[in-house]
Amino acid sequence: MVLFKRANDITDYIKKQKEEGKTIGFVPTMGALHEGHFSLLEQAKKETSFTVCSIFINPTQFNNPDDFKKYPVTIEKDIESLIQHECDALFFPPKEEIYPPSYRPMQYDLGALETVLEGHYRPGHFQGVCQVVDRLLQFIEPTILYLGQKDYQQCQVIQRLLDLMGRTNISLRISPTVREEDGLAMSSRNLRLNEAQRKIAPSLFQELSRSKKALASTPLSQVKTEAAQNLSEKGFKVDYFEIADARTLLPVTDSSQPSIALVAAYLDDIRLIDNLPLN
Ligand code: AMP
User: Fold this and answer.
1) Whose Cα sits closest to atom 7 in ligand 1?
2) d(Cα 187, Cα 178) in Å, to the nearest integer?
3) CA 167/CA 154 separation, integer angstroms
4) 175 CB under 6 A from ligand 1?
5) Helices (H), the chain
6) I want to staple 103 with a disulfide (CB 3.0 to 4.6 A). Which of 44, 99, 190, 220 is the partner?
7) Which residue in 33, 48, 55 sits closest to 141, CA to CA?
8) Helix %, strand %, coil % of the chain (to 5)
9) Three-state SS across 207-231?
10) Mean pLDDT for each 10-residue chunk of the chain (279 residues)?
């Protein structure tokens, strides 16, 4: 695996790979890598001939400075794992490489995606996500971009970014959420859970699954309220438990249309998200 810290260097290197006829699969991450990240990489290895992973904890997407400070960093282990998984290149830039002093962020028009669910509870988050992904795509120009369904709204936002920026040459692949045996969606933030919190955390997925079943016989609004209540009783501070249109992410009143259940909740100061498509 070749490691790059400078944007110009990785851009030049990838250009050469493309001249040799290779297709580029790109997996952007913030590190503290786990099986969820590796599933994206494995998918990329199946579908493209040169795989690139990036590790950059993007400060502009953290609306909570404390969350940024506490974000887990395991770079040496990450590099070892990427070598084991036979990733071809790692882009691990310092902050100035993504945001040099001359950088001026643009305002991305994300429509309602910016104001619902994560957008509502994390103001500015998706502008930050677009800033970093836009920069990374400029440097790497992948053939296929790999994202995880775990961050469902982020996937919708990035599809919108690709449309907005006219990047019709980049395909987006969304991979299913990888879970622990007890159902907890893998996440770098899980590293911050203590033993007691780790035991409670799978309730998020349990409530999503329970709600999916309950919808067959219970009114949708009652399903949502009960799920949020159950989570609160278990010790979560719930931001939202919503059933939304799978495309617009606006709340639905009738779950017969393609919809998805999404949840965001805190255990102490650790914010966890998960989702489950309903039909
Ligand atoms: P992150 O490092 O959390 O920014 O995630 C980098 C990429 O990995 C994003 O596209 C995430 O959606 C994806 N990802 C994170 N957790 C999982 C998971 N449990 N299963 C599948 N993909 C995931």
Assistant:
1) 29
2) 9
3) 17
4) yes
5) 7-19, 35-47, 65-69, 75-84, 95-98, 118-121, 125-140, 152-164, 195-200, 203-214, 220-234
6) 99
7) 48
8) 45, 20, 35
9) HHHHHHHHCCCCCHHHHHHHHHHHH
10) 98 98 98 98 98 98 95 98 98 98 97 97 98 98 98 98 98 98 98 98 98 94 97 98 95 85 98 95
Dump pLDDT digits (tens) for 239-271: 999 999 999 999 998 867 789 999 999 999 999
CA nearest to 132, candidates 183, 178, 98: 98
- Ligand 1 centre to CA of 37 (Å) is 5
Res 187: pLDDT: 98
Antiparallel, parallel or unpaired: β 89-91 and 2-4 = parallel
Indicate if ligand 1 lies below 6 Å from the C-beta of 185: yes
Cα gap 191→184, rounded to integer Å: 12
CA dist list (Å): 59 to 97, 149, 240: 13, 22, 24
- Among all chains, which residue has been given the structure tokens 């952007």? 28
Query: What are 219's two structure tokens?
Result: 């009114």
CA 214, CA 233: separation in Å to the nearest integer?
Answer: 19
The CA 216 to ligand 1 mean position distance, Å, reads 30
Ligand 1 pocket test: pick from 81, 126, 151 the residue with the most ligand atoms within 8 Å of its Cβ. 151
Residue 23's pLDDT is 98
- Does the beta carbon of 25 lie inside 6 Å of ligand 1? no
Triad 231, 233, 234: Cα angle to 5°: 65
- 248 C-alpha to ligand 1 centroid (Å): 21
Q: How far apart are CA 219 and CA 183, in angstroms?
A: 25
- What sign does the CA torsion over 173, 74, 64, 193 have? positive
Active-site residues, by number, are 37
